[in-house]
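User: Sequence in, structure out. Go.
Assistant: Echoing your sequence, followed by the structure tokens.
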Amino acid sequence: MSARSDDDLARYYDLDLVDDPGDLDMYLALAAAADGPNLELAAGSGRVCVALAAAGHAVTGVDRDARMLERARAAWESRANVAGGGSLRLVEQDITRLDLDQRFGLVILALNSLVLLDGRAVQKQTLEVIARHVVADGRAVIDVWLPTPDDLALYDGRLVLDWVRRDEETGEWVAKSSSARFEAAAAAAEVTSFFDAWREDAGGMRRTMRRDQVAFIGASELVGLAESAGLVVETLAGDYSLTPFSGTSERIVMIGRLPSA
């Protein structure tokens, strides 16, 4: 059977991130140094914003996916009783048109969320949203993946098995496969992910599909968008240890500051 289930996709998002990306220590350190509350855009199921709130920070998480926010809310409720005075507010809204009428000491757009936005115009709009929500001398952090030519060589439509994992919430085994096509002229790709789930004690298989448009961005373009939004780029790093960015970096971790008036 083939179908799309938002509940399944939200759960599979967490299953996809069983292997920790390794960015939480960086965000915890930046939050500890921030003057004011924290804002995470495209917060998803709460991997980052829940961890920051559990560490004692006042955090707002924004996402347009209600199922993802339900998981974030449940994750926070399971940890709130042991949190050191932190708080978490979750807002269901499109981050590209966000106006919370509040500014934050730290604004986060983590783990490739920027490249999942629909092209440069929307990415530019989102950088402007970020700048409008940062306090004077506050900071914004954006993290995106830089695919290598070898990575993009696989974006030719072939179906690739990414992983097979057990979903402890349902008792199912889940296999993730993906197929992607890269358009060099647009520096963009369409990525289709298939999640096939089955139980050992039951017959049949469920297939859930997700399709994403990915608009890759380079370091100079990202810096240009940040500066046009009014941010001053303080750090351009190539990993979560904030090693200086270079031609061999596999990621861009950009930290921008909103200067004082």
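User: And one key feature?
Assistant: The chain has a mean pLDDT of 94.
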